[in-house]
Amino acid sequence: MRKTKNISLDTMVTDFILLGLSHPPNLRTLLFLVFCTIYVLTQLGNLLILLTVWAEPKLHARPMYLLLGVLSFLDMWLSSVIVPRLILNFTAASKAVPFGGCVAQLYFFHFLGSTQCFLYTLMAYDRYLAICQPLRYPVLMNGRLCSILVAGAWLAGSIHGSIQAALTFRLPYCGPNQIDYFICDIPAVLRLACADTSVNELVTFVDIGVVAASCFMLILLSYANIIRAILKIRTADGRRRAFSTCGSHLTVVTVYYVPCIFIYLRAGSKSPLDGAVAVFYTVVTPLLNPLIYTLRNQDVKSALRRMTAGR
């Protein structure tokens, strides 16, 4: 919490300096190449999934794969909001970000990230209906309803991002302007505010931490019912296929939600571990998503083989 200061307009900062990730100078070139490679592979992998879902009639007609396509689209944009700016920190380029650019990055980061949160919950609900209500599934989750739910997730994400950006940058920033982080994110930016940040910290805890935790609990509840239904399947092959379908999504959810909750339920933390955890769910997870779904999902693998064979 900060005490309010008397601030004149000419002391307000016009840009921020992103200090990036702490690293030994001799590793700068290596880290530059590593993150460049991660970014390129993330874009190519998610684009491949997106094209596969779009090109294969059997996939884009099913809500599960429509949601997977939307997830790949989100991953491509989320990676583009974070990684290029991170890569610049390993070059001689200026680390200054205009005030408006910092606002935009924080908005899009939370817009896309929260939309992804809601999408994971929808994917769990879709799997719950498919396995626990198989006979009613075509009625309960059709293409039109799936599109409406996805649009609702985008709208909710946009509202969330707008609220967070507005609340964060309504505060005065009069210096210093160095953000000890690799992106303009709420906890790091709030440390520079020249005003009381207790309300913002409370909103961050409730709106991000509790919402993320609630979505995660809903997903776990869905999977508790799914596992119970799978165990009732009589054939071993049927159980294996059901677990395989759900395993990909559950793996992705775990590697996304656990670091996210770790960061935002500890908004006041200044631990150096926070940066590494944030890199994992903002940079590495979008790379892992297409790999996880490709390696574990038989339908996607079959569609990819047909695409590469030209059939």
UniProtKB/TrEMBL annotation:
Record's keyword terms, sorted: Cell membrane, G-protein coupled receptor, Membrane, Olfaction, Receptor, Sensory transduction, Transducer, Transmembrane, Transmembrane helix
InterPro entries per record: GPCR_Rhodpsn (IPR000276), GPCR_Rhodpsn_7TM (IPR017452), Olfact_rcpt (IPR000725)
Top-rank taxon, per record: Eukaryota
Localization per record: Cell membrane
Transmembrane segments annotated in the record for this chain: 30-53, 65-87, 107-125, 145-163, 208-231, 243-265, 277-295
An MF annotation (GO) of this entry: olfactory receptor activity
Domain annotation G-protein coupled receptors family 1 profile: ranges: 45-293
Topology relative to the membrane: Multi-pass membrane protein
CC annotations in GO: plasma membrane
A Pfam family the protein falls into: 7tm_4
Annotated signal peptide: none
PANTHER family: OLFACTORY RECEPTOR
Listed name of the protein: G-protein coupled receptors family 1 profile domain-containing protein
